[in-house]
Design a protein that fits this description.
19 helices; mainly alpha
Length: about 400
């Protein structure tokens, strides 16, 4: 592999051709990281009815990718060092396309097998894209992280909005509505092809800074664990709301399509914040004020949903979307802001996304279980309120200006 070199090291945005090609690859790769997942929530009742599965098992449709994230995330940096970063991303897109297609076969085993495979594939992008940005755009981390997160959430919003209408067509059904996202992952695979030739972006153990980083040290870092819990809690909130809020809204008299578009509104509300927050966070001495605002918006949004007032639903979804976009953008920035090198960023990303997503996986299943037991939505909604408070506690530690490893000059 070639030596570790950034592709763009000046603050002006007069990118070279290869820089634009890489940026396009990042955008398309990011667009595949949520769109295959967020379309499930609006049609989970259709899937449940067609396959005759319980609410708990239906919750696993959302939880299985999180378990796949948790299993693979710690190994993604190691795999990328062996195969090369570009090749690892390329192979993950092949796996993602296959997983989406298998999921759409229309029976229970293929649904869960395909979901697990696409979860494994998405884990690579989750872990490696932040380190790609830190490596290749060291002076534009906030801006590039914003572009990456906007791409992810825009495709996510589109998926949440159009999946239910598509599933109601006779030619597609829920299987085809989920299967169409294989086209996007295949396009992303083609766009990523040039990266296999340029040899850039390999993560190596050697760095330009001497640090105390090691596998043992990162596990002992309180800051790393605060970031991990922050990552996990915002993910728990995101995936639980994506899986179940449409069902909550339908129980309040909203149609399936309207519930899907309400979830899409939440996703769209995330977009400005996923772009703005990384840029703002990059310029702040600490990010605690962002954490405070995020917590307040989450609590206000959950309260509006729990009230059962139809008039409050749009505002509640917007508040939850703003909080979700800000918390996700901030979580992604922590991987860069609290580390010195791309290798450290990848290690922190692997730890945070492994244990964070494992923690987040509890949310959708527990939410469905509590609904089955309580026969209502007030008890399961308590999960979201509790998660927002815990997010605040973890974020106040993660938002302090310090690093997971000391720099040894």
């Amino acid at each position: 592999m070639k030596d570790l070199q950034p592709i763009h090291t000046t603050r002006n945005l007069r990118f070279k051709k290869e820089t634009w090609i890489l940026l396009l690859g990042i955008i398309f790769m990011a667009s595949t990281l949520r769109s295959p997942l967020t379309g499930v929530g609006p049609i989970v009742s259709t899937i449940r009815s067609d396959l005759a599965i319980s609410n708990v098992l239906a919750g696993f449709i959302t939880t299985i990718p999180l378990l796949a994230f948790a299993i693979l995330s710690p190994f993604a940096p190691k795999i990328s060092r062996k195969l090369g970063l570009q090749s690892t991303i390329f192979y993950s897109l092949i796996l993602l396309t296959a997983g989406i297609l298998i999921r759409s076969f229309g029976n229970t085993p293929s649904l869960f097998i395909g979901t697990f495979l696409l979860g494994l594939a998405i884990a690579f992008g989750n872990v490696l894209l932040p380190s790609i940005i830190k490596l290749n755009f060291p002076l534009q981390i906030g801006l590039m992280t914003g572009i990456y997160t906007v791409s992810m959430n825009l495709s996510s919003a589109i998926s949440a909005g159009i999946t239910a209408p598509l599933s109601n067509t006779a030619t597609l059904g829920w299987q085809g509505a989920l299967g169409i996202w294989a086209a996007l992952s295949f396009i992303a695979l083609l766009v990523w092809l040039p990266q296999l030739k340029n040899g850039r972006g390999a993560i190596k153990s050697s760095t330009t800074h001497k640090t105390a980083s090691s596998k043992q040290v990162i596990w002992k870092s309180p800051l790393a664990w605060s970031i991990t819990f922050f990552m996990g809690l915002q993910s728990l909130i995101f995936y639980t709301t994506a899986a179940w809020i449409p069902e909550v809204l339908k129980s309040q008299g909203m149609s399936g399509e309207s519930a899907g578009w309400s979830l899409s509104l939440l996703q769209l509300a995330q977009l400005p914040m996923t772009f703005i927050i990384p840029i703002i966070a990059d310029k702040m001495k600490n990010q605690r004020i962002i954490v405070i605002v995020v917590t307040l918006f989450y609590l206000a949004g959950f309260t509006g949903i729990l009230s059962g007032s139809t008039a409050l639903i749009p505002l509640s979804m917007i508040l939850m979307g703003i909080a979700g976009g800000a918390s996700f953008g901030l979580a992604m920035m922590f991987f860069a802001l609290r580390t010195h090198t791309p290798q450290e960023s990848a290690e922190l990303s692997g730890l945070a996304q492994s244990f964070g997503y494992l923690f987040a996986a509890i949310g959708p299943v527990l939410f469905g279980f509590l609904h089955d037991v309580s026969l209502g939505w007030k008890v399961p909604m308590g999960i979201l309120f509790t998660s927002a408070i815990l997010l605040f506690l973890a974020g106040m530690k993660a938002g302090k200006r310090e690093y997971i490893f000391p720099k040894l000059d």
